[in-house]
Amino acid sequence: MLGRAKKFLGVLSQASIAQKRAAFQKGRNEPSEREHSLSDEQFYRMRRLPPYVIAEVNAMRHAARAAGRDIIDLGMGNPDQPPPQHVIDKLCEVAAKPTAHGYSQSKGIPGLRKAQANYYGRRFNVDLDPEREVVVTMGSKEGLSSMATAIVAPGDVVLAPSPSYPIHTYGFIIAGATIRSVPTTPNEEYWDALDQAMAYTSPRPSVLVVNYPSNPTAETVDLAFYERLVKWARENEVWVLSDLAYSELYYDGKPTRSILEVPGAKEVAVEFTSMSKTYSMAGWRMGFAVGNPTLIAALTRVKSYLDYGAFTPIQAAACAALNGPQDIVEENRLRYQRRRDVMVESFTRAGWEIPSPPASMFAWAPLPPGFEHMGSLDFSKQLLEQAGVAVAAGIGYGEEGEGYVRIAMVENEQRIRQAARNIKRFLQRSNA
């Protein structure tokens, strides 16, 4: 009797298991009502992020190209030239070593941190301690977002420019901070906005983000601006995070400046740079944060939890770029300047006046006459569909970016002139 009972229970158990397996498999294949009702909006940080506007036009561009259309891409700031050959050779040389494929150092190999310190010495006459004042980041974007994670708490107020590159705002929003926008243009209204923010914001802002040359507006500042900014930051006990990603792309013989050139700046400031544009190494994701030792230590500590650092051969090749011949820096600068001049001249003749940017690889242009009512996103979509030219909608860089588009100088002169011809036809049809 007992044996029969055990046998029966065993069969029942197997049947139960089979039923559970079937139910599990059904659940995998057929989403439940609960799953249907959920989206990524259930997550706290997702609720704080609006749709990524820039991605809308990018998706349209990809679809158009997949359909066989010739699209002139002036939207994303993606360098179209390769890095110097000696840098690629160094990458391959180190990658061929069997010992080069393990975990690297999160804060960057010593030789690369020293190379960046030496670069600041040559370029800005600024002394940096490679151990305490330099950390390697995986691009300036990752550096800013990791710094946000390191130094802000939920509810902290951060002053960020608008319009500006999204990471300057959303890197801190993701970390839980609240953003108060300040202008980008470095005039007296800028300083009034800073003072108003300190006087009427609670809690008082603790961080200020600056970005010159600006992405997207291409505006620049002189050393006097940074001197005034350092004085203001010290008086108000505010950390300054300076994004200097486009520092080497300056034109007309007017070099950009670093906030760290100001005596005492390292008491309040950290600066982020990138090799993406300077050496055409965008996909390598190689950047730096330098300056205040307290902030650098915080960033280094957070990064040690988040990543193992860039691939060692990439870091070695970055050393070769910083320490080797600097011809490519000047070549890239002159290349973008030529493209700028062609773009300004040809677009203006086509009926769309483009202000000449003093630096960066972008032009920040108001919508052409007659299109102001449309808004930057709809205009960008129409320009792509009807003219085959992709630009970045200004609204993607903040509310104050509405009415403008960002135009990247990442196609050669011939393609830029072709874009101007397409735009001329588009404007003529639209205004007919």
Topology:
Layout: H1 2-29, H2 33-37, H3 44-47, H4 53-66, E1 72-73, H5 85-95, H6 110-124, E2 134-137, H7 139-151, E3 157-161, H8 167-174, E4 178-182, H9 188-200, E5 207-211, H10 223-236, E6 239-243, E7 269-274, E8 287-291, H11 293-306, H12 312-323, H13 327-350, E9 362-366, H14 376-387, E10 389-390, E11 392-393, E12 404-408, H15 413-431
Parallel strand pairs: 1-10, 3-4, 3-5, 5-6, 6-7
Antiparallel strand pairs: 2-8, 7-8, 9-12, 11-12
Q: Can you put this structure into words, describing what you see?
A:
The structure is a single chain. With 432 residues, this protein is an alpha/beta fold. It has two domains: 53-81 and 328-431, Alpha-Beta Complex (Aspartate Aminotransferase, domain 1); 85-326, Type I PLP-dependent aspartate aminotransferase-like (Major domain) (Aspartate Aminotransferase, domain 2, 3-Layer(aba) Sandwich). It is 48% helix and 12% strand. It is built from 15 helices and twelve strands. It has a seven-stranded mixed sheet, sandwiched between helices. α5 (85-95) packs antiparallel against α12 (312-323), α6 (110-124) packs parallel to α12 and α7 (139-151) packs across α11. The termini are far apart.
